[in-house]
Inverse folding.
């Protein structure tokens, strides 16, 4: 059974584009077309507004929390071409850094695993991906992958720090490799790898026939394989798997409507998808490798009653 | 019914009408989750739970061209109906004229077809009517519905004489727009400036007029996109128009060229802005099965000096399979609600769904946003959804799973509902027991000392060095059965150890051990297992006794089996044997089956018992094999079993492999199947010391599990896990912090080894007993007093840790400890401090440092304290 624990009145004046819980699940950040970011404390099922961050001149598309070892840090990206990193110091939030080196809307932002330090990637409609890192002394360094996706990059997601191949190699400690996956308007999913300080295209995964809307690299805890999920306007979700012998694809499902967003549960055992059919669906892999939908969370269809729409 | 139109009522949330060229039907929406039991002709399904009920009153008239719903509540449900002869009639469905507006007629000077009707949204007495071209008449009439027929001026009456039969009709428009021979295609009022409107004219102009000066347009642009002019109510600067298969969006402030133009594959038939959602433009093309929606998030816009691009996405809304959509209507108040009607007259009511951003929380709840609101969704325990392993793992640890390091078996109390995990914990406890036993003096060969062993290592199979075992012909233990042929058993010290690990007691020279085990099994109600174990130890009478004394639901079954066993005979082809064979098929308990299989099988062929799917537990099969298989067969069997358990990720198989490379592969497969990183990490840690403790996979499981515990903020649990881990790994964390003396710079820790401390005065103090006791309030190195507590002003110092070496009796736990109250602590920022308890009291009421003149806000700097206060 699915039950809505509670509904939150965000008092955003326009559409919410992203909602992110921090590492511990105690803080919730939302961003909206109203150009604001709101941060809530989540405590015992109750949410209290902590602060509202304003600084963007357009809709704020996506948010990402940094690992708590860096303090309370959140990055936001917006239609105004900016990426802003916000930090809480002594209970008050402020801008830490503003990155303005994109030529078009910045659609996606994501912090790297904390093992790599304070490092984030962002993908933009100008087709490029930026990797921004903190040098530790308050300055920031940015590397750019130009033309990562022609027409635009819609999503970026980091690989977990442990390379699955290392798990099978008994020779001992390995230098973790920085890897990320991106999806874009060229219908491609691409994997990028840092080699000698340079970002290079490692893989080009072809499988979608329309814009790739979202990509998510699975946490794959304890497993000797890499798993990536991608969703597209071609109504499909594809699971890409690499167990050391190259990438293979499997279509999770063909939906009736566009799938906009996908997300792995914290242990990577469940994939949640949301799409135009107004459903959040949960998918799980069976022992024989098929994916089954274990739940649909319907958000409104057919629940128009007495002039009201219920939330569940 | 091909030209069906649909309109939501602007007033009532649950009322709409459909219009065909000769009939207008009124519907009311009702909510019902169940289908009506019998088919009601007036009920039509709109969605899974919504039904449209046709109201008994309808309006029927010929020549019906267009309909516009009066935007005010009174008179109720009044429509303006435009006819093919240009007349406009006001009517409602009740038909009785409680208002003098009802049945009022507005007649243009010259008869021609009405193209559109449009009510002014604010000055709702104004109704715009578009008419087809007439040689010397205007094409747009704006009627004032409150005009009375008598108000008309004399010269107009001349013209109206030809229409004398409609005596109550109004013939004079409030305003006429458009000169002779001009045409109009579309019309829309602005709401913010209700005296203005936009209209597409003369096939090439889009014009904005102001009623206060109708002689010329206030603004105009030359374009072919003149049809379907529609003002975005969410942003009145925006106008959408279309022509053929193009749709354009205009900004009236920059009217020269459209901001956006979309090209559609087919000719567009209607466009409508969603009145509730910014930027939604609904587009219907001819012969289309879908409604297309452009979500225009941004028109090109200038921020500072930079021009930002447009940003929109398109959606295709499927309505009904293979039915051509005839018309749609946005609900005037409810978010993105769209009512459609197909050419066949089928209705579909749906909501154009927003992108749902969502995210997992660490507690496996989902946070989802829809529009402007959010919700947190959890997944309850329910049979329909298998519980996610993450949720399960958290539940388990809160029950104490993996925290019981003293009596390992107690860990299963936290996983009562998961008996599939019992086996591996049983192995762990037996292996631990054996380890403890070995530690107490008895050495064990081949360097196996100090490991949690698997059967394979015990038997020496992993190094292919199997100790020879003695074959013994064993007799059945009871006198009555002495006459039976003896049974071959194999014995060796290693086999006994293996049996011990399987929980079979092991030593066949100590029958009392077996009795204890049998007794325990019986106490647990596991009669069949006990009986089987007795039988396999050749104690047939004991087995019969156990079965016949069983208490429980199945005891009749067991008693029957007891009787059957009692009649055991070795002769083949007897009736007993045949009966047993048939009984064997019916028995559900694998142990009972195994007993019969044992009795009836050809000697030394135990395949059936050892390989049966769903047969005995793995540990019992292994134990059986350790008794009855010779070395070669045993080796073959164990190796076969190893491959099987690794492939299946069967944790019970750790009994065989132990935590060897095979064991880690097995756990790896188990993690792959279940995602149960917790059990994997626990097994690796509880079986320490083991040879795999530095394996990448093992470390990865342990680290992943620790990170999970951290994310759940179960820091105490993680610390306990660390303790178990590090204790097993003989790992010591080096001291992390020292307090050193201000004067001599040496550590003031009292528990430092005496030798390492310089004692300047020990030459003469060494002799006296009292001086060896360190004075706690001064530096043990230089004897200078320690700083004072900023609150009580006494010298700091604590005997904490000193008891360790002044008191030799370390057995009492509390003797080591002194109250943390006396411990000294200080602010990391201003470096002022005092006794912990005093500072706690102080900062309960103050945030500033207690030292005079120090303005440090010590307590607000304390991140940990703030976290604690928050949670």
């Amino acid at each position: 059974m699915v039950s809505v624990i509670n509904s939150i009145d965000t008092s955003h004046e326009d559409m919410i584009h992203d909602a992110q819980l921090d590492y511990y699940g105690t803080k919730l950040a939302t961003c909206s077309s109203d150009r604001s970011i709101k941060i809530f404390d989540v405590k015992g099922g109750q949410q209290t507004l902590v602060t509202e961050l304003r600084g963007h001149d357009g809709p704020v598309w996506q948010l990402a929390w940094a690992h708590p070892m860096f303090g309370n840090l959140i990055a936001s990206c917006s239609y105004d071409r900016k990426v802003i990193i916000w930090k809480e110091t002594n209970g008050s939030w402020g801008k830490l850094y503003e990155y303005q080196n994109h030529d078009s809307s910045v659609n996606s932002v994501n912090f790297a695993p904390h093992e790599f330090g304070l490092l984030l990637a962002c993908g933009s409609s100008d087709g490029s991906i930026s990797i921004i890192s903190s040098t530790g002394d308050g300055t920031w360094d940015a590397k750019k992958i130009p033309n990562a996706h022609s027409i635009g990059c819609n999503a970026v997601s980091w690989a977990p720090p442990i390379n699955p191949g290392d798990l099978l190699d008994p020779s001992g400690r390995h230098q973790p490799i920085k890897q990320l996956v991106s999806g874009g308007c060229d219908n491609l999913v691409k994997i990028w790898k840092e080699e000698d300080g340079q970002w290079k295209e490692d893989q080009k995964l072809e499988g979608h026939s329309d814009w790739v809307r979202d990509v998510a690299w699975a946490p794959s805890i304890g497993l000797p394989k890499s798993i990536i999920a991608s969703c597209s306007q071609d109504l499909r979700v594809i699971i890409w798997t690499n167990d050391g012998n190259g990438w293979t694809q499997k279509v999770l499902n063909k939906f009736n409507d566009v799938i906009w967003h996908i997300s792995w549960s914290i242990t990577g055992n469940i994939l949640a998808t949301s799409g135009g059919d107004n459903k959040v669906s949960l998918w799980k892999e069976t022992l024989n490798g098929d994916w089954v939908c274990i739940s649909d969370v319907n958000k409104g269809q057919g629940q128009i009653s007495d002039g009201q729409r219920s939330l569940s | 019914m091909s030209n069906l139109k649909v309109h939501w009522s602007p007033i009532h949330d649950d009322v709409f009408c459909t219009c065909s060229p000769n009939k207008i039907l009124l519907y009311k929406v009702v909510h019902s989750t169940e289908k009506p039991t019998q088919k009601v002709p007036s009920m039509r399904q709109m969605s899974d739970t919504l039904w449209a009920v046709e109201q008994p009153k309808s309006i029927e008239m010929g020549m019906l061209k267009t309909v516009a719903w009066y935007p005010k509540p009174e008179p109720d449900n009044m429509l303006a109906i435009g006819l093919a002869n240009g007349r406009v009639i006001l009517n409602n469905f009740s038909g009785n004229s409680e208002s003098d507006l009802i049945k009022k007629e507005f007649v243009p000077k010259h008869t021609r077809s009405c193209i559109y009707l449009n009510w002014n949204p604010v000055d709702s007495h104004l109704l715009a009517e578009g008419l087809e071209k007439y040689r010397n008449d205007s094409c747009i009439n704006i009627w004032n519905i409150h005009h009375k027929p008598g108000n008309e001026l004399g010269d107009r009456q001349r013209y109206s004489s030809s229409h004398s039969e409609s005596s109550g009709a109004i013939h004079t428009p409030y305003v006429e727009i458009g000169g002779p021979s001009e045409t109009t295609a579309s019309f829309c009022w602005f709401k913010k400036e209700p005296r203005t409107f936009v209209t597409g004219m003369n096939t090439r102009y889009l014009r904005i007029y102001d009623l206060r000066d109708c002689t010329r347009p206030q603004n105009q642009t030359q374009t072919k996109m003149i049809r379907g002019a529609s003002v975005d109510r969410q942003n009145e600067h925006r106008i959408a128009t279309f022509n053929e298969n193009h749709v354009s969006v205009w900004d009236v402030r920059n009217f020269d060229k459209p901001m956006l133009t979309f090209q559609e594959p087919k000719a567009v038939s209607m466009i409508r802005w969603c009145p509730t959602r910014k930027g939604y433009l609904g587009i219907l093309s001819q012969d289309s099965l879908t409604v297309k929606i452009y979500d225009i998030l941004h028109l090109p816009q200038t921020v500072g000096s930079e021009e930002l691009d447009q940003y929109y996405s398109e959606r295709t809304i499927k309505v009904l399979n293979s039915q051509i959509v005839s018309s749609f209507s946005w609900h005037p108040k409810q978010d993105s609600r769209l009512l459609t009607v197909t050419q066949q007259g089928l209705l579909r009511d749906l909501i154009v769904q927003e992108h749902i951003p969502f995210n997992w929380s660490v507690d496996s709840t989902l946070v989802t946003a829809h529009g402007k609101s959010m919700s947190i969704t959890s997944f309850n325990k329910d049979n329909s959804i298998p519980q996610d392993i993450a949720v399960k793992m958290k539940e388990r640890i809160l029950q104490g799973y993996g925290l019981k390091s003293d009596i390992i078996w107690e860990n299963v109390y936290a996983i009562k509902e998961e008996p599939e995990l019992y086996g591996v914990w049983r192995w762990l406890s037996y292996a631990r027991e054996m380890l403890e036993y070995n530690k107490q003096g008895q050495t064990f060969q081949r360097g196996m000392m100090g490991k949690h062993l698997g059967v394979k290592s015990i038997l020496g199979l992993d190094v292919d060095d199997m100790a020879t075992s003695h074959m013994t012909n064993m007799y059945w233990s009871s006198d009555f059965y002495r006459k039976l042929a003896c049974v071959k058993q194999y014995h060796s010290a290693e086999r006994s150890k293996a049996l011990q690990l399987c929980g079979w007691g092991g030593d066949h020279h100590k029958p009392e051990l077996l009795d204890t085990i049998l007794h325990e099994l019986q106490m647990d109600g596991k009669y069949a297992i006990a009986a089987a174990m007795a039988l396999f130890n050749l104690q047939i009478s004991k087995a019969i006794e156990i079965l016949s004394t069983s208490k429980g639901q199945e005891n009749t079954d067991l008693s029957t089996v007891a009787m059957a066993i009692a009649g055991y005979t070795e002769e083949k082809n007897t009736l007993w044997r045949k009966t047993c064979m048939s009984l064997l098929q019916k028995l559900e308990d694998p142990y009972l089956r195994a007993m019969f299989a044992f009795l009836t099988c050809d000697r030394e062929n135990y395949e059936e018992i050892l390989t049966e799917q769903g047969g005995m537990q793995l540990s019992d099969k292994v134990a059986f094999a350790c008794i009855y298989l010779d070395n070669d067969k045993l080796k073959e069997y164990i190796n076969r079993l190893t491959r099987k358990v690794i492939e299946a990720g069967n944790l019970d198989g750790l009994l065989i492999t132990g935590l060897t490379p095979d064991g880690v592969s097995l756990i790896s497969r188990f993690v792959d199947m279940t995602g149960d990183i917790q059990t994997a990490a626990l097994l690796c840690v509880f079986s320490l010391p083991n040879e795999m403790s530095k394996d990448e996979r093992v470390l990865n499981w342990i680290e992943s599990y620790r990170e999970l515990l951290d994310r759940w903020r179960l820091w105490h649990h993680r610390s306990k896990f660390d303790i178990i881990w590090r204790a097993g790994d003989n790992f010591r964390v080096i001291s992390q912090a020292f307090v050193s003396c201000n004067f001599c710079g040496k550590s003031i820790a009292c528990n430092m080894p005496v030798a390492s401390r310089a004692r300047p005065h020990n030459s003469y103090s060494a002799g006296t007993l009292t001086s060896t006791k360190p004075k706690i309030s001064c530096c043990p190195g230089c004897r200078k007093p320690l700083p004072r507590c900023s609150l009580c002003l006494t010298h700091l110092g604590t005997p904490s840790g000193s008891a360790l070496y002044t008191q030799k009796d370390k057995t009492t736990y509390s003797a080591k400890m002194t109250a943390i109250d006396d411990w000294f602590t200080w602010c990391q920022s201003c470096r002022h401090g005092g006794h912990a308890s005093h500072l706690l009291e102080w900062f309960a009421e103050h945030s500033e440092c207690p030292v005079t003149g120090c303005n440090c806000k010590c307590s607000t700097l304390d991140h940990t304290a703030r976290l604690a206060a928050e949670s």
The first strand of chain B starts at residue 5 and ends at 8. Residues 367 and 376 of chain B are 4 Å apart (CA to CA). The mean pLDDT of chain B is 79.
